[in-house]
């Protein structure tokens, strides 16, 4: 169930549309100073947003950002961090079953695209980030990490839940499921719950078996971003 304070903020936003006859003047509850957003393995607080024509860009820092593209011009209305605990019975966890643990708060954004109000909520469950887009109109969402495109997704009208998860090590991004030898002695694993393991050996091999270590995916051998952008298949999203 949506947080009541955020619902009232949305009601206040709608009341400011042209032709509205009333406004919500008192909003009960108190927002918290900050709510962490886990964005592909990096934690951020209070991202900045800017709207240009029909594109809203949400910047986290370090060339990490998302874009939300609509058919008509868009404008941001509110940004808020709200204390609201979600657990394994929440809509987030039910729609994204790989989420584990609890989320103590969410970071919410309200946008307007024409007369339509759009809600975007971010939650962090342990090592994993996730977001919800609740929109009465279709839109396109892209995610970028370190200046490199990670995913682009066309969303239909309605509610869409999606993961924002991955691992970071020494400035490098590793998608969930990565198992890679990054140097002669360092092996990195990013498991299904975005838990990072860095070891000084390859757990797939045994010195007794005499097998040869094989690089599954090594970012240190990839071209620079200006030559070939990092792309990966977007994770399965849940639309309800």
3D structure, described in words:
The model is unreliable at 4-29 and 215-234 (pLDDT under 50). Helices cover 7% and strands 45% of the residues. Strand 10 (139-145) and strand 11 form a beta hairpin. It has two domains: 4-167 and 229-239, no CATH class; 169-221, no CATH class. It has helices at residues 4-15, 91-95, and strands at residues 37-39, 42-44, 48-52, 55-61, 64-69, 74-86, 103-113, 116-125, 128-135, 139-145, 148-155, 158-164, 166-169, 172-175, 179-181, 187-190, 196-199, 238-239. The chain has two helices and 18 strands. A six-stranded antiparallel β-sheet has the order 6-7-8-9-12-18. The protein has a five-stranded antiparallel β-sheet with strand order 3-4-5-10-11, with no helix packed on it. The protein has 240 residues and is mainly beta.
Structural features:
mainly beta, 18 strands, 2 helices, 5-stranded antiparallel beta sheet, 2 domains, 6-stranded antiparallel beta sheet, single chain, 240 residues
Structural class call reads: mainly beta
Strand order of the largest sheet: 6-7-8-9-12-18
Enumerate how many helices there are, as a single number: 2
* Topology as a string of helices (H) and strands (E): HEEEEEEHEEEEEEEEEEEE
Percent of residues in helices comes to under 10%
Could you name the ranges where pLDDT drops below 50 across 5 or more consecutive residues? 4-29, 215-234
What is the terminal separation in angstroms? 14 Å
| Tally of domains | 2
Radius of gyration: 20 Å
Instruction: Please give the oligomerization state of what you see.
Output: single chain
Mean pLDDT: 79
- Main sheet record: 6 strands, antiparallel
Overall, the morphology is globular
Q: Into which percentage range does the β-strand content fall?
A: over 45%
